[in-house]
Amino acid sequence: MKIPFNDLHAQYLSIKEEIDQAISSTIAASSFIRGPAVDRFENQFAMEMGVNATVSCANGTDALYLAMRALGVKKGDEVIVPAHSWISTSETVSQAGGTVVFCDTEEHFFTIDPECIETKINERTVGIIPVHLFGQAADMEPIMKLAKKHNLWILEDCAQAHLAEYKGRKVGSFGRAGTFSFYPGKNLGAMGDAGAIVTNDTDLADKMAMIARHGGLIKGDHTIEGVNSRLDGLQAAILGVKLKYLAQWTAKRKSIAAKYTELLTNSAIVSVPEERESGSHVWHLYVIKTEFRDELAKFLADRGISTVINYPTALPFLPAYSRLKHRSHHFPAAFKNQSRILSLPIYPEITDEMVSYVVKSILDFENSKVT
Ligand SMILES: *Cc1c(COP(=O)(O)O)cnc(C)c1O
Fold first, then answer.
1. Has residue 319 got a pLDDT over 90?
2. Residues with CB under 6 A from ligand 1
3. pLDDT tens digits for 83-113?
4. Alpha helices (H) along 71-139
5. Residue minimizing CA distance to atom 2 of ligand 1
6. What is the mean pLDDT of the chain?
7. What strand order describes the sheet that includes 286-290?
8. How much distance in Å is there from the Cα of 204 to the middle of ligand 1?
9. Which of 14, 62, 71, 78 has the fewest Cβ atoms surrounding its Cβ within 10 A?
10. C-alpha dihedral over 284, 285, 286, 288, to 10 degrees?
11. Whose CA is nearest to atom 14 of ligand 1?
12. Counting Cβ atoms within 10 Å, is residue 249 exposed (0-12), middle (13-18) or buried (19+)?
């Protein structure tokens, strides 16, 4: 059996008529930049996320950059980010002119460790970017307390966590702003690049929109220098269709994760991902841990099962940050996790039969090790 890591075509086929219709009507109206589909999607997304405003932009990386520019990050400002994430989280701090400060992650939940944050705060610290990694909310309560105590802003990186919750509240609404990616493989994915920022602060929303549009909200009137970062009409029309299905797709991800966990929980060589009791995990990725990671990945590949390592090198250990001279013992949890993690296929269209096949293959591998 062939099990891809994700199956975007299967998702397209499941809603083909609506998608085709959305694309052809955008083409018929030639509304390629901004236009009604973008306005509609921004409103729809703000409503769905329970916030006052959505500012759409070109991708999830720009979303982080735009938010930090609007928050006023300047040279010398330190921004705290988790050691284990996609590089967008840290590279945008530098892009905005700030200084990246890494914090270790919680070994069992993969998100930024609040205890570590406290040790990194000093007079230059201006903000914290918790990443709701793999679809699970970071431990927001202690993070919010620290931010309040030290007068720091929080910017949530929600790129992997559409509809995830912490203590009954959706992510993206805890900080000054929350950023989303609609990269095709994300839980809500466009058919190209796309991103958005949500916030309850409408002044901040205007500022972010201004920076995304060459520094001016009125054409020809540039208050400051900005960038060109926009969601195009076709992507907005596609996202508008897909957003209606997001809750149902998320429920499907949860049931697939529950099935993996049930069937793998007694494994002697694989640990299943842990879910915070206070949260609602949306399972962008289902990440197991095993000492036999590379061997298992190869065994599964030989059986037609695709897996991915998200991410094989924690950020502080990447060549891009060699200037910081970080060592493994500075980030013990991230360092330990990077060589054990393996992401199994999870997407709404995967069938029970496929999940069973993945599990059976893992257990076969286990038997080959034990005997
Ligand atoms: C995908 C992702 C981003 C960036 O999104 P793009 O749309 O690819 O620019 C940022 N942060 C995290 C954690 C991501 O997974």
1. yes
2. 59-61, 85-86, 88-89, 131, 157, 159-160, 181, 183, 193, 195
3. 999 999 999 999 999 999 999 999 999 999 9
4. 88-95, 114-120
5. 159
6. 97
7. 270-271, 286-290, 341-344
8. 21
9. 14
10. -150
11. 159
12. buried
| Residues linked to residue 128 through DSSP beta bridges, in sequence order | 80, 154
Q: Is the sign of the CA dihedral 246, 284, 198, 196 positive or negative? A: negative
The mean per-residue pLDDT over the stretch 68-76 comes to 98
Give the three-class secondary structure for 33: strand
Taken in order 320, 103, 67, 197, the sign of the CA dihedral is positive
**In this structure, what token pair is assigned to residue 69?**
């520019």
**For residues 250 and 187, is the Cβ–Cβ distance under 8 A?**
yes
Q: State the Cα angle at 106 between 149 and 99, rounded to 5°.
A: 55
Q: What is the pLDDT of residues 219-248, one digit of tens each?
A: 888 999 999 999 999 999 999 999 999 999
pLDDT for position 301: 98
List, for residues 116-171, the tens digit of each pLDDT value.
Answer: 999 999 999 999 999 999 999 999 999 999 999 999 999 999 999 999 999 999 99
d(CA 145, CA 165): 18
CB 260 within 8 A of CB 41: no
**What is residue 13's predicted lDDT score, i.e. its pLDDT?**
98
Q: Which atom of ligand 1 is nearest to the CA of 64?
A: 10
Bridge partner residues of 125 (DSSP): 78
**Residue from 15, 3, 5 nearest 246 by CA:** 15
The whole-number average pLDDT for the span 23-30 is 97
Tokens 């149902």 found at: 248
Contact between 256 and 117 under an 8 Å Cβ cutoff? The reply is no
What number of CA atoms fall less than 13 Å from residue 4's CA on the CB side? 10
Distance of CA 130 to the CA centre of its chain: 11
In this structure, which amino acid lies at residue 263? L
Q: Which two tokens stand for residue 321?
A: 């940050």
Tell me the helix, strand and coil percentages in the chain, rounded to 5: 45, 15, 40
Tokens of 209: 């929109």
Dist CA 195 CA 58 (whole Å)? 5
